[in-house]
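Render this sequence as a predicted structure.
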Amino acid sequence: MFAAAVEGYATDGGTPAPEESAHLVDGLFSICVELSARFCADALNESYFGWDEKRFAGRGEHNLLRARGQWALAQAVARRRGELEERVTRAFGGSRT
């Protein structure tokens, strides 16, 4: 999905500055961690505006699943950082620092 998003953006004329594209992977990782933390807080506080009452007994249970999903995504981004950065470099060309 990441590759398709980056390549689609580049194909559609997206041209971020080198310092912006160099931090796309960092931004993705940060957003995943931030969302995971937010869902953890929502789970502890039993709060959130929407949850699936048919699948979960409470908001906390649903938010815990959301938190775990975002954390798993953050870990996957960390493991594949080099590959994702290479995709950005290929999509936008040149050396990214």
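Summary. The chain is about 70% helix and 0% strand. The mean pLDDT is 90.
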